[in-house]
Design goal:
The structure is a homodimer of 224-residue chains. By secondary structure, chain A is of the alpha/beta class. Chain A is built from seven helices and five strands, in the order E-H-E-H-E-H-E-H-H-E-H-H.
Chain lengths: 224, 224
């Protein structure tokens, strides 16, 4: 029987590449998108379409109202999404505990469908310095997952796969292209508008643009 | 300045005792209830009223649609909430990854308000054998919290407080009474009806009833 995997999926460049990798590794993909009050909620629509395009076994959307906590430019109307800057500081787009919440929900989904493999497209090279995108965070979550679950108690070993962790954006794009990813169907922008157009200047756009440039490939992104 | 704490709060016997303990220890309490598609959603109303009664600094409700994942008698209409049984197995009321999800949201809330202390009323004595109610789970979450957050990177140390972990229900009740908890204002039942009446026979009712009996105290619970 084909092994199931849960893929945290925003329909962006990274998670779509991640989905392609999971499929290439022979997993039966179950994509999971989180509606967390992100201002760029159009990404949920992109994710849904992309999940359909890639013919996943199931696409699940779980809502979690992290916007009610505030504290991030991505969810709090009182804080503007900033343009990319070279600062060493963790930017305002950091959402407190976001990846911990996402992975926890993915863990619940995985346990429900009988999967022990969870993929996420985080990256610790061309990234914004978020603490929950680091290898030691992932290892700690894996340890937690095995203690937190009925499956874990029964001896199953959960594995958190972050195949993009050590790659730069250009290499991610090249890998995805080799696997047949159509990046025109992905969206990464934090200010994505209601027609799916990217701003071109936020952190996420910055790294994506740079990736295509460094890979020497045409950028298929639709900019506003 | 009074130190802030987040208390995971269902308005039940355990979490209300936990709130009383946090207050007694001098913390400024911020209660957090999760609306996760539980069938006994009336507990959210009990929690709101109890938070008001105990005059907490802020009461926050975060929704997370765990019911869309299914797999638990507490959220899935296809699975009935069972009566208590002496079985060694983890019961159907187990919600995959629930405490991991709750603690993750609590971590996000804590980081947003500038708290590093999180209380939860889990218990590893008179309990249902849930894996995410064990000390090793809590330690793993604490390790994760420090790696997952901006605050953690900046050197803050998160502390997960589970003051009831090693107590039996009778001792929890006695401790709560000593701190002035009014248990008639708490509700623990998995089948709580829309008038806040308990079934008296589910796991949660079983342990609660036994607790009052063993403590030699009158049970103020409203049964249906």
């Amino acid at each position: 029987m084909q092994k199931k995997a849960v893929i945290l999926f925003s329909g962006g460049l990274d998670s779509t590449t991640c989905l392609a990798i999971a499929k290439d590794q022979g997993y039966l993909p179950y994509t999971l998108s989180c509606s967390y009050g992100q201002k760029h909620s159009f990404e949920l629509e992109t994710a849904r379409k992309a999940a359909e395009y890639y013919n996943v076994k199931q696409h699940k959307v779980v809502s979690v109202t992290l916007d009610s906590l505030g504290g991030s430019a991505l969810t709090d109307n009182a804080i503007d999404v900033p343009d990319f800057s070279e600062s060493e500081n963790i930017p305002d787009t950091y959402v407190p505990a976001r990846n911990t919440v996402f992975l926890s929900i993915a863990l619940g989904f995985a346990e429900t469908i009988g999967a022990t493999d969870i993929f996420l497209g985080i990256n610790a090279v061309d990234y914004s310095g978020y603490p929950d995108c680091r290898p030691q965070f992932l290892q700690a979550f894996e340890d937690l997952a095995n203690l937190a679950t009925k499956k874990g108690v029964e001896g199953a070993k959960f594995k958190i796969h972050a195949p993009l962790l050590e790659l730069n954006k250009a290499d991610i794009i090249k890998m995805g292209m080799a696997l047949g990813v159509d990046y025109s169907k992905t969206a990464s922008c934090y200010r994505l508008d209601s027609q799916g157009r990217a701003c071109g200047t936020c952190d996420s756009c910055h790294y994506r643009k740079l990736g295509f440039k460094e890979a020497g490939l045409a950028d298929p992104t639709l900019y506003s």
